[in-house]
Write a structure and sequence with these properties.
Glutaredoxin, 5 strands, 57% helix, globular
Amino acid sequence: MKKINKLFYIVILLIFIISPVKAKDILQMGALNAKVTVKVFSSLTCPHCANFHLNIFENLKKDFIDKNLVKFEHHSFPLDLAALNAELIVRCHNDSKKSFQLLGEIYEKQNDWTTGSDINVINESIKKIGLESGLSRNSMKNCLENETLQQQILNERINAQKNYQITSTPTIYINKKKYDSKHDYKKLKKAIEKLL
């Protein structure tokens, strides 16, 4: 697995050097013209990211996103090949709502699928979660082999590194300001309410 992760970082470095970085579609929900935008840069293999999604995002969705007060953006920042592949499966859904539901399932079952002995075992575990969300094996195979989608996600990570200086995941931005307080819903809620 260490060799695979080394290769993953080499690929990112090469993309950074030879390819132009441009903005692209990201996973988002809520009103596009909301006064407040919350951006979360996360890796699907990161336990702190799973904690944020399972314990903070759901409250944020109920209190702000579903009421069209906040636009939420999930920015992929894969830390390894397993996280990249999980992100590819999440993006197999054409429907943003289904993608977010699958994102939640992947975070909820993170301890199960990240413990595989190699990337093939991990991919099979991710696919099982994808099947439960309504994706077919064939569509997931196509997503995992989709070089354009891989490039898009890796470019998203590079863009985040260049523009937001991400040093850890999850990193949260509220509008254009980095949120540095503890990842606690009450504090995040207060920070958002001040801007509404």
